[in-house]
Fold:
Amino acid sequence: MRPVPALARRFAIAMGVLLGVAGGWWLVRAPAIDRPVAAVPPPDIETPAGRARIDAAIALATMPDDPWTLAESLAASAPAQAEAREKEDCGIADGPQFARTDSTDDEPLLTRAASSNWRASQARIDAALRASADPMDRAVADFLNIGDMRTPGAAQEAVAQQAAISNDPRVIALGYGVCHQDAARASTCAALTAERWAQADPGNGVPWIDLLAQARSRGDEAAVQDAMAHLAAASRFDLRFFAPAGAVARHLPADSRDLAAAGDLLGRSITQAATLPLPPFMILFEVCRHEAGGDEVRARLCRATSDAMYAHSDTLITYGISGALLFQTTGDTARRDLIKAERTVFAAHWSPGTGFAPCQDLRDTFRRLDREAQVGEVEAMREESRKFVPP
Structure:
């Protein structure tokens, strides 16, 4: 049997979840290269100039460059620094250790529990989150339930209670997601409605997707039209998928020996965020399909919603939905093709971070997730790309 570090195991789980949820960029660390555009391109990009733009993006994505070769070259140019990074102690050996069984279906077996140093490191991060003046940090502490001091139900109740008395849209969005998990039983969840989320988060189109689905299920056409109007007028579509990870990243411990324990919590925050339900995007396709069934006014709102998602999404999820929505509404594949081309660029041009030093790579991961929590996944990835690919 081969030992499997707990940190690697947790990160592998997180990467697998994100592969299905957010297009798998965690697996390839795939940033885009284009800056956000001030004006949304017209839907019909089937022009010589538009086609050339797509072809250029695909050509750039398939260039035979190798970022790992770049990393090796950089490491070779500074062997002393590389050796120091390899010898750095960031606490990886303090984590729980696992061993694989002969069966691929079995969970790895715990061969050694986490050390007291590891548990103390995570307890310090928990204390820092709870003592923070930022209400999101305190909500994330309950969400992560570090040390498993509460039952899952009690942890859900704690997050819901914080969200119920908060005016912070990040906390309310987290509480709303926790309350809409399949196993949620928190009594406080009754106060966390999509209406309250939308009221506390003006300009964010995400809660209005839920309100659209609710109106559609009631057969309330006036409410459907109102929800579509809000979606079309939305200034952003913030899922805040990386907000819990960002809270952990902001409390990166000063002692490098705590780094791996903090990285384990980072993996936990990603895994748990991935279990929160996504908005019911299918309702948009149902309402908008085939020029909204011939409703000219609603079809215009559908196209405007696609435009807003395309220009102002904080994750690849809604960014990708924007192209699918335009296709469902008009049959035009141009935006979908452009997004696919850009995501091909994401997969081809990614940075291996700091090379092959696990401790420094952890720091790089913390930095990136902190940035994603601040500016969103799409823009953070574009920033990373510009370090390696000229605009």
